[in-house]
Design goal:
This protein is of the alpha+beta class. The protein has seven helices and twelve strands. The protein is globular, with a radius of gyration of 21 Å. Bound molecules: zinc ion (2 copies).
């Protein structure tokens, strides 16, 4: 096996026993295992881990890469990463799988009917270090994940926005989640974009599950549901504190959502123009 990326961090480095994702020196003796292809190991080292290479490379094997989710030649790599940063890193392959799923479904379900509507990613997956103090300024470059332009119109204007939420659950009635959760901050970001741009926004839920081929696994997208922000707001059950976290979330009835298969019907009826009109006439309600 020809795994080529073999740089290692050595115990004489000032970054030894320091969280690789923390830009400053933050002590962590938590050794985090990641199965990665060379390309993704280098990408994480450069973009997320402050150019600090792994402390260990295992032998090459074939399996799923823990970042790009591809079946390829990989190796176990280890870094010092504290548990909070590691959670963020383990979230990347889920976001990557969700983003891939959205584009696949869009091309399969929407494009055949509306080739003029182009889905554009603004900022879904942000692979980046943790910079203390600059969290809010740097972590969210864009307040929303996708925009859709109408390329049949002069100047190819944006006609609506999409915020993507990812989770393991289905939204089908019989097997699905009881409540759809959206952080209050996310809701505020979405309605701020709508008010500033005077365009409606939709929320898509991507079901992403894990598929195991031990010792590796990958995240794989299953299905996509959609709702618009007015319908979501009308299905708010309550706002409450998120368990174990220092923030509030809105909890919504999942019946606000429909499978993406029904989205072309909404687009065909120019649903997004009706929502834009409603936004300009009534505005969009804040959360209580
Ligand atoms: Zn950290
Ligand atoms: Zn990879």
């Amino acid at each position: 096996m020809s795994i080529e990326f073999r740089d290692v961090l050595t115990p004489d480095s000032p970054f030894w026993e320091k969280c690789a994702r923390h830009q400053n020196l933050s002590t962590s003796r938590n050794i985090a295992p990641l199965f990665l292809c060379d390309e993704c190991a280098i990408r994480l080292t450069n973009d997320c881990f402050n150019q600090r290479p792994p402390i260990y490379h295992g032998q090459g094997l074939v399996g799923y890469c823990g970042l790009c989710n591809e079946w390829r030649e990989i190796a176990l790599r280890q870094w010092f990463i504290d548990p909070i940063c590691l959670n963020v890193v383990y979230g990347y392959p889920k976001s990557i799988a969700a983003c891939k799923l959205i584009f696949e479904k869009w091309h399969e379900i929407v494009t055949p009917h509306f080739p003029n509507l182009e889905l554009q990613e603004i900022d879904v997956v942000q692979i980046e270090p943790f910079i203390p103090g600059k969290r809010s300024a740097l972590s969210k470059k864009a307040a929303i994940d996708f925009q859709v332009t109408d390329n049949s119109l002069e100047g190819k204007p944006v006609v609506f926005f999409i915020e993507l939420k990812t989770g393991p659950s289905s939204l089908l009635d019989d097997q699905g989640m009881r409540e759809f959760q959206l952080d209050v901050n996310d809701y505020v970001d979405i309605v701020n974009v709508m008010r500033a741009e005077e365009k409606p926004a939709y929320v898509f839920h991507a079901q992403v599950t894990e598929e195991y081929s031990l010792p590796t696994k990958r995240s794989i997208g299953k299905a996509v549901w959609w709702t618009d922000i007015f319908t979501l707001r009308a299905n708010l059950k309550q706002v409450r504190h998120r368990r174990g976290e220092d923030k509030d979330a809105g909890y919504y009835d999942p019946k606000a959502f429909h499978l993406l298969d029904t989205f072309p019907r909404h687009l065909g009826a120019k649903g997004y123009l009706a929502l834009a009109k409603r936004l300009s006439e009534e505005g969009i309600a804040d959360l209580p």
